[in-house]
Known about the structure:
The chain is an alpha/beta fold. The chain is built from eleven helices and 18 strands. Strand 6, helix 6 and strand 7 form a beta-alpha-beta unit. The site of alpha-D-galactopyranose has 9 residues, from loops.
Amino acid sequence: MKKTLVLLTFSLFLFGASAQKFENLAQTPPMGWNSWNKYACDVNEALIAGMADAMVSSGMKDVGYDYIVIDDCWQVARDENGEIVVDKDRFPHGMKALVDYVHSKGLKFGIYSCAGTLTCQGRPGGRGHEYQDARTYAKWGVDFLKYDWCNSSTQNAKASYSTMRDALHAAGRPIVFSLCEWGANRPWEWAAEVGQLWRTTGDISDSWNSMIDIFNQQKHLARYAGPGHWNDPDMLEVGNGGMTTEEYKTHFSLWCMLAAPLMAGNDLQNMTPETKSILLNKEIIALDQDPLGKQATCYRDNSDYQIWIKELANDEKAICLLNKSDEKKTVLVDFELLSGSLSKFNVRDLWEHQDLKLKTGSIYVELLPHSVKVYRFIKK
Length: 380
Ligand code: GLA
């Protein structure tokens, strides 16, 4: 009896001890760049190093972007010991050297793998190699792991992702764990104790319809998000060419209202002034990165016209007026009502970068097709 108790305590210690995620990571939504949206499988060390350079020289680092994440296709095989093999043609200096380079720029490094036997592009997955891979990532100095869900057959999602969480924890290096099972198993209900962020939908593509469709699916998820555990509506398409500037402004504003991870997915080395003015809009980013960590909720839904509200620290809040329709709309906005008490606040337009000069509590606002207006109530 005593022996059983000792054994039980010992195994609880052994297995219970590592059954946790790293705490205090991603207290605000992670910001960075990921290779997938623009480059898909066409990744190599020069490209990744160039993006790290551009993240610094473009000013993105200064406004908070700090993860450089290589998505699928960096890996080609496993060796006779089961160790993951990096594509030597594309990464001739190996992964550790690239990680060191990214770190030397004051940035963090993210990598991609998959809970199934193969990644979505048919490269070796993590299934059965979780502890070994976690040790490898820790040895390389990886800071972020995106973990996909292709070729997972009948695997249980919570169990599979928990195994990798435990493996990362056992490897000892704090690594942000990004679950990517596309919302298939309602990760918002169980993943807060597994990772720091979880995808809520299938993949985004570079079009208004795809973006707004994903946005529509976030409406009931606000209560699951908070510091250290975020809903992830997928990476940004801003600057990739498939939407208008107005639509990209909407995309970026909505993601910030949602307290979504902000992973740019464009060519950082060749950004137009418009793209830069969106990705570098500090006042919009501040909504995303607000320390209260609340995801916006829908306050009014008139189908293609909506009002979203995001509560912010210091009893401030942001409101976003969204025109999803193909036509211009003029709407009456009651700032007195929306603010709770207008005398306490200045109302700032976060795209015009100026405070409104209000003579009355409500005004008419014109919204272009597929556009937003984003205001912040700032305490006087
Ligand atoms: C899945 C993910 C994408 C991307 C690709 C890579 O589709 O959802 O974000 O990582 O795999 O193959």
